[in-house]
Design goal:
Blueprint: E1 9-12, H1 18-29, E2 33-38, H2 41-56, E3 61-65, H3 71-84, E4 90-95, H4 110-131, E5 135-144, H5 148-151, H6 157-181, E6 183-190, H7 196-199, H8 203-214, H9 225-235, E7 247-250
Parallel strand pairs: 1-2, 1-4, 2-3, 4-5, 5-6, 6-7
Length: 257
Amino acid sequence: MLKNLSGKTAIVTGSSRGIGAGIAIDLARRGANIIVNYTSLRGLIAGGEVIKEIKAAGSKAVLAQANVALLSDLEKLVEAALTLSESEKIDIVIHNAATGDDCYMEDMTEEFYEAQTDVNLKAPIFLTQLTLPHIARGGRIVLVSSVSARMGMPQQTVYAGTKAALEGIAKVWAMELGKKYSITVNCVSPGPVATDMWTECEPDVIAGFQPIINSTPAAARVGEISDIVPVVSFLCSEESRWVTGSTISASGGMNFI
């Protein structure tokens, strides 16, 4: 694999499992050094395996415990990245961590709302703010959205709202931060992907998606991690230098943007 990210330092939130783990490993194979983020004991164990794969690829990594909903823990991610970085700069930030529990509008509570918005929306905003004083020229910020932002699926009031917000934020940051910090900011929008987050969805949510999955233009299936990762890696590379403020659909055509 082309080592087109050699010497770069990347923070990938939610990177102990699922899409985040795939992103972390692929960036490492391209030469980047990675901060792998986990929260739970389950994540600690899985994150240890991710670290092994990163080191096997010849890159460096730090496994950092951080609840991204807490600003004090976000500071830990930035500090770990600066310690790992050869240039004392942060080159890449991938906002992947998310929670996607489902809830009908009639059952909505403030606690449910805050649990999702803290992870899906507050965390990307404040981690970016903490990163900016240390971001490298030519840096990359990538936010992971979802087709749910545009599809009106039942039970996804908060999840869809936060993911739609990330797509708007990518445009705002591209304008507000782009020239000032010499960075690009983009969003990737996957459809359902075969991770534990998908398999642990409520059965009626999966059933509601099935007709859409069956009619997906590229293939009648849910996505694989390997379908999403190269798109994110491209947006982290020099080859994507003229792409900013964009949302790229990585959904097999489930949703056109």
